[in-house]
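User: Sequence in, structure out. Go.
Assistant: Echoing your sequence, followed by the structure tokens.
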Amino acid sequence: MSDKLPFWLVNVPKHQWPVGCPEFLLNANTKDQRILSTLDGDYHVMTWPEVTELISIHAVVLQSLFISQPLLGQNRLDQLQRVPSDLRRYLEYTTRLKKEHGSVMNFVLKERLQWAELKPKGNIPFSEAEDIKILYNDWPYGIDSKIVHLVVWTKFDLEDDPAADDLTPKARREIDDYVNRTFGSRVNPDHVLWFKNWRSLKSIHAVEHFHVMLYNPPPEFVDEVTHGDVPLSEKVGKA
């Protein structure tokens, strides 16, 4: 942690220091302020085993909720965090998107997904390819660079249980089947993880999606399933 500087100056070269707190950081929550106060060099980059454990604990918690057993842990997906300087860039960029497009959702629909409407063609989930789009996570977390983080966007809803605040067992089986078919057939199954954010952690609520992480997958495979997508964090470059 850097105790001598306000959070909005940490990891910023002195010649680039703003006079006051930038507008895009004025409403930063306590968690973001804590991360932004950390030096990049002090940030712990998560390894594949650590990410695997984190996602596995999340799945166990959900299972315990659905079968009415005592809670075995707690939701730890919020431990997937961005490197401090990347979080700063993310907050700055999304603030600009909201000004230019009205909301991040509008930008995602128009520019990233290029979907004019969200009515699915298929009657059941994952039955029509045009109801699905696989893209990079635009602003990746602070994880091993060998881990590829993708987002699977869908025009159809994934059934959830309001009481559990997450997917129903039926929806989880549907996603499992799709992930195994799409990714597990081309990548070592032990190197494939998926998760869906708890509703409270979603940054984009109106477009259904879940996350897939692949450890050291063949680049040509990733290029194939994403149709040559490039994450926004690479397009905008380092600040």
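User: And one key feature?
Assistant: The chain has a mean pLDDT of 86.
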